[in-house]
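hey so u asked for the seq, here:
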Amino acid sequence: MDRKIEKPFWTTQKILMSIATTAFVVFVVYLLAFRDRSSKYYVSKNQLSIAVVKKDKFQEFIPIDGIVLPRTTIYIDAIMGGNVQEVYVEDGAMLRKGDKIMKLVNTNLELSYMEQETRIFEAINNLQNTKIALEQNKYTRQRETVNVMQDIEKLETQFDRQCQLYADSLISDETFEQAERDYRYGRKQLEIALQLQSLDSLSTIHRNKQIDQSMDRMVENLSLLKESLGNLYVKAPADGQLSSFNFEVGQTANAGEHLGQIDMPDGFKLRAGIDERYISRVSQGQEVTYTFGGKDYNLYIQKIYSDVNAGMFQVDLLFTNDFPSHIKRGQTLQLRLKFSSETDALIIPRGGFFQQTGGNWIYVLDPTGTYAVKRSLRINRQNTLHYEVSEGLSEGEQVIISSYDSFGNKDKIVFKE
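ran it, structure tokens below
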């Protein structure tokens, strides 16, 4: 009799189908759960600037440009206006104090001087005549006093005789009384004459003193007039080099106009402009460095100008010791204004990445060197060469420091072979 043959449940076909289904499910789960969903940007590695995070000495500073100026400058301004009649020296000449630079001519000033001089001489002459008159009055008073004294002597002699005659009863009472009245009157006249002489003497002394003072003032005014006329000769106010002088014969120089300057031979200073953002961090005595030929020259801030123009304020700087022999007036030197001393720090070189990230994140290379991923970081201080990293990176790691313009804010940068 026939026997029914049962077919096995796990056939080869079912086993293969189960394996395929399981593999598909695992693949789908992998895609859904474990696949790298981060956005990627593919770029050739040699197109990027890659730097190593390292620990080294760091100093915060900013670059500033300083213009070389004479340490001491004396400005020459026109005290009196006029036309240039003669020019005695040229720009750049070395001068001694008092050397003539140029001569101005001012006809109106000269005529005014002559008129005032004439009036002053007339006033002085009148005062001298007044002084002579006072002296004459003094001698007149003295002569009057002498005459009165002479009359008194006569009256006194006559009165003495009358007294003797009256005692001998040789003259009448009336005659004696008249002689006595004449004598007292004469004495009174002498007292008045002496008082007038004393009063006139005191008045004469006082008026002579006033006249002398007035004459002295007039002589001083005359000297000032002569000095004003002498200001038409422009002279060097000190020893030094004449600069910024460019006047020619025939030009007009107005009163108060800047004519030039004398640069004193006592060294140089530098004047630099600094961004107003740093005004609270700049102080007198702050250190500045200039490097030339492998040698550092130290300077310090000597003066800070408080005015802010176009977002900049200015400072004057002096060399601490010697200054470079090659520098010339008007030359521009690149300096480093220090905000801190050198300290050990974790640093990375400056790069274009900062413009896109603001220093808040950076692409860090995987140890395999095949890709780079975003990582947050914190940048503390900076200078023209490096950023100081205070958080987010470790020594020896590699980072992309070139511009991120083309990356489109991707999460991962994959390097193409």
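The mean pLDDT is 83. The chain has four domains: 38-59+343-416, 62-71+267-338, 73-106+232-261, 108-195.
lmk if thats what u needed
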